[in-house]
Structure formats: structure tokens, C-alpha cells
Amino acid sequence: MQPLETPQPQHARRWQAPQVAHHLLLMVSVVTLMTTGFPIKYPDAFWAGYVVRSFGGFDHMLAVHKAAAATMVVMGILHLAYLGTAWLRGPRRMPDMMPRLQDVLDACQHIRYSLGLTRIPPRYGRYSYLEKFEYLAVFWGMVVMGGSGFLLWFPGTAAQVFPRWALDIARIIHSNEAFVALLSLVFGHFFAVHFDPKVFPASKVAFTGHISLKHMAEEHPLEFERLELPREVKQAVLAERGAYGPSRWELNLPFILLELAVYVTIFLALLVVFVPQFLA
Amino acid sequence: MIRGNTGPGQTWSGVARIVQIVLMLTIGLLLVISGSAAADGAPGASAPGAPQCLTCHDRLTGLGADQNPGSTPGLELAGFAGSVHGNLPCTSCHRDILANARPHRIAATRPDPGEICLAGCHQDTVAGSYARSFHGTARRLGSTRTAACQDCHGAHDVLPVGDPLSRVSQANLPATCGRCHQGPQVNFARGEEHTVVEDRGDAFVLYAVWQFFVALIIFDTVKDGPIAISTLVRRLGSAWRHRRRDRRDEEREG
Fold first, then answer.
1. Which residues of A touch B242 (CB under 8 A)?
2. Whole-number Å distance between alpha carbons of A78 and A95
3. In percent, how much of chain B has pLDDT > 70?
4. Which pLDDT belongs to residue B157?
């Protein structure tokens, strides 16, 4: 990874090079895994045939799927090694991601704030309870998808230990956790980093490793307060209509209304599809 | 056989007339019985197709196998006669053979062997579970390496699951799976084939796991949906306030 640029005055460093690299590897492998995996989950969908043909047939597509899976496993090992070395150097970076009691309180406050029961938004530190949940959910997803995928990749090896019905369960797990992952990626994560008008069309934090002070002041106020910066800079950031004012998407009423319609539709459609399946 | 359509002007004795009526009734009765037998789905050994085809294609007695081995595949008659399909006409599976004149008239597109089994007779019992299995999905998407019906069940020698000689009997299943998956292993036989998650009785663990993940999907929906929606509503409010304030500022300046 090439060294990152020095931060501009209105930016702060959020991620180091290894974190940026791990996110990139995870992104590439997950997008590939989903592209090559969902035609197998929905073989009768109109797009399944196109995807399979674009990979030159089913067997080639499956080979790409396995290559992406191997990439993801390598990325996971790299990240665990990174966590290990960070821990050995001194347990300073890890606690940022560790769930605490404050996260439960933040979640309650967020629910009350979203329902309009309070005007005080939750004040997050370096990582919000949602970001911590997402990060730990990726751990869960990698273990579940990696484990079940390994059994399906090597059924003969797996059968030396597991009965055949365990492989059937592995397939149910792999297929359904894939949808859970798709949902949290496209419906959850993409809102936070793409479709929230505050960051639309994309937040660049994960790629540059730098976060704008305005963004930090809004989303991570406790971290912003702890930041060592001249008072004037902080005040300029906190003043709503200064050099760091809202983006044009944040002020685009038709755009926000359209997004609202799309998200309400997807939300209701998901409930209509899956709640009856659960109650059946 | 029936001599009823004799020409006019011929005289009939009473006895001959009675014999004629009895004969016709007997033939009628035979026709009714054989018709109902066919409707019961038990075609007789004399079903059209098999004997004619085996004249050439039987490896033991056929002529074609010796005369023209390249174009007339042989067939172990012993295995076929003993299989559950032994009394079916060949063309009920070999549907691309359109006529038995030589050279055969053969359909331009050869139907997928798996589809033949499912389309004609076995659609209710196994089609759904095979289509949803990994083997069935891979085949549906064009894989030629994956197992179709006959790869596990055999083709001409297909036997019921309960038959110890069947390829899919409990004893033979490990070897059958092992033909593709790293040799015979006992664990291959420990589970149910042709089940789907909705079969709670046969596959309750599958069903429970599936329900757990449906619950997880609902949890994700209920978590992420309202977050996006409430955030958008808040952004809408602040965009609206911004617009009003900008308008007020303009009025004040202008």
C-alpha cells in the first residue's frame, strides 16, 4: 500500500493503510462472491443466465467464486494478524471497536431520537454502535459463510467428519446467510456510505483513510471533541453555514423524497416477503 | 378375425349367427380388460418399442452390435429386463428417436436426460427437490459435470431404493456418491436425499436452520429499514428548513 497523503487542514486521519487495504480486499471479494453466488441461489431469475454466460459457463463461474472465497479468507487472516500485532504493540486501537454498555444506551437514545421522543441525538465516539455491530457482523458472516462454504467446496473431505445431512444444512446456511449479507450490505451499509444524502454519491473515507472534520463533528462528536485542534477551526466546523456547509444533495428535496419512497418500498417489500415465510 | 363384414346375398344359419355374437362379445370384453390395464399404468411386456429396438440393440443377442458397433449401442438385456423400467417402451426415455426406420429419424435437439425423467413420470416426487439441490441448480445453469438423475440412479439398470442391489440403497449409496466425491464414505448415506426445507417431518433440522435465517433477515430489515427511513425524514426536515431560511434571507436582501 502506498503511503497516504498528509491530511488537509479540514480532514483528520480515520483509517491507517492496513485498514484501507483490508476494506478494499473485502469489498472486491464480497462483490465477486455475490455476483457469482446469487445466480446459484436464484437460477430461474431472468438475470441468472446472463451472469453465468458472462463468466463463460457455470463451472467457470464457480471457479471464480472459489477464487474470491480464497481471497476473502486471506483477507480475514491478514486482518486477524493486524489485530494481533496491534494488540501486542499496546491495546489501544482495539477498544475503539469493542462493544460497551454505552453502545446499548446509544442504541436506545437513537431509537428515541428517530421516533421523535427526544431532540438530543446520540453522541458517538470513534465508532457508533451501528458501525461496531456491522464490523462484528462481518466477523460472524465470514465465519458462517467461510465454514459452510468450505464444507460445500470439499464435500468429500467434509464427509470424513460430518454426516451428509450436515452438508445439506451447510447449504441452507450458505444460501440464506448470503441473503443476510446482501441485505446488510446493500440495504444497511450502502445507506450509510452511499445513499445518505450527507455522503451521496459515496463516502470516500474508507478509500482515502481521511474523514472531513464536518463529518466527524456530526457523526463522531465525542471523537471530534477529543481532537487536538485550534479553537477557531473547531468553531468553523461546528457553525452550520461556514466553509463546511451542507452538500447540494442534502438540500435537494426531490432527491431526498425519491430516496424515501425507494427505501419505504424496499422495507415493506422485504417484510411482505419474509414475515409470512417466518409465520408459515 | 371377425367375419362380420361379409358381402350381401350370403345366407346365415342360426348357429353361425350365435357363434358370431359370442365371438364379438368375447373380443369386446378382452378389449375392455386390456384397456383398463393400460390405464392403470402397467404397460404389458408387449409394449411397442422394446422388442423392436432390442432386435438390433441387445448386446447379447442383437445383430447390430456386431454388424455396426459404432452406430448401434448395445444394451445389457439382463439388467434392463430386471429394472423397474424393464417393461417401458425404449422411446419413453429415448425421446429423440422419432421413428424406428433405419436410419432412425432423430430429433435435432437431444433432450437433457434429467429432464426426461422429470417431465414424464417423476415430476411430483423428486422434481422440486432436485431442481433446488446443488446438482439440479448447476445443471439448470448449464454445468455438464454435475450429477443428473441417471448418474445416481442408473439408467437401464435402475432399481427401487429398497432393493439391496440398487445404486441408491443404503449400502450402495456411499460408493455411488464416491464415484464423483473422493471415494466411498459411510457418511454419504447418513441423511435424506430429495428433501426440501418445507418438509418439516423429514428434515426438521433443515427447517429450523432455515427459519433461524429468515428471522435474521427480518431482524436486518427491521434494523436497517427504519434507520434509513428516519434518517431520510430528518434530512428532509433540515433541507426544508434550509430552503425556507434561504428564501427569507433573499427577501430581506432583495
1. 246, 251
2. 19
3. 67
4. 82
CB contacts of A171 in chain B (<8 Å) are 134
Please answer yes or no on whether A250 and B239 come within 8 Å at the CB atom: yes
Which segments of chain A does DSSP mark as H helices, in order?
17-41, 46-54, 58-89, 101-114, 129-153, 155-159, 164-182, 190, 205-208, 213-219, 221-226, 231-238, 253-279
In contact, A36 and A62? CB cutoff 8 Å: yes
Contact B213 A58 (CB under 8 A): no
Determine, for residues B232 and A263 on separate chains, whether the beta-carbon distance falls below 8 Å: yes
pLDDT of residue B46: 38
Of the given ranges (A34-38, B57-61, B239-243), which has the lowest mean pLDDT?
B57-61
* Cell 423400467 found at: B85
Model confidence band, residue B38 (pLDDT cutoffs 50, 70, 90):
very low
Q: Write out chain A residues lying below 8 Å of B176, CB-based.
A: none
- All residues of chain B having their beta carbon less than 8 Å from the beta carbon of residue A275 are 218
Percent of chain A at pLDDT above 70? 93
Residue A240 pLDDT more than 70? no
Q: Say which residue the cell 456530526 belongs to.
A: A218
**Smallest Cβ distance to B232: which of A48, A180, A260?**
A260
Q: State the Cα–Cα distance between residues A96 and A78, nearest whole angstrom.
A: 19
Q: How confident is the model at residue B40 (pLDDT cuts 50, 70, 90)?
A: very low
Residue at B118: amino acid letter: L
Residue with the three cell numbers 462483490: A31
**B174 within 8 A of B183, measured Cβ to Cβ:** no
Higher pLDDT, A3 or A174: A174
Which helix (H) or strand (E) segment holds residue A250: the answer is: none
- Tell me the sheet residues that pair with A13: A210
* Mean pLDDT of the B204-214 span: 91
Nearest CA in chain A to B181: A156
**Count of positions (residues) in chain B:** 254
- Please report the pLDDT score of residue A36 as a whole number: 97
Of B181, B225, B239, the CB nearest to A155: B181
Q: Assess whether pLDDT exceeds 50 at residue B39.
A: no
3-state secondary structure of A210: strand
B67 sits in which H/E element: helix B64-67
How confident is the model over B135-146, as a mean pLDDT? Answer: 89
Alpha carbon of A11: minimum distance to chain B alpha carbons (Å): 23
For residues A278 and A272, give the distance between their C-alpha atoms in angstroms, rounded to a whole number.
Answer: 11
- Contacts B226 to A, Cβ<8 Å: 114, 267
End-to-end CA distance of chain A: 51
Interface contacts A/B by beta carbons within 8 Å: 177
Contact A156 B185 (CB under 8 A): yes
The better pLDDT of the pair B181, B72 is held by B181
Strands B105-106 and B97-99, bridge-based pairing: antiparallel
Q: Strand ranges (DSSP E) for chain B? A: 97-99, 105-106
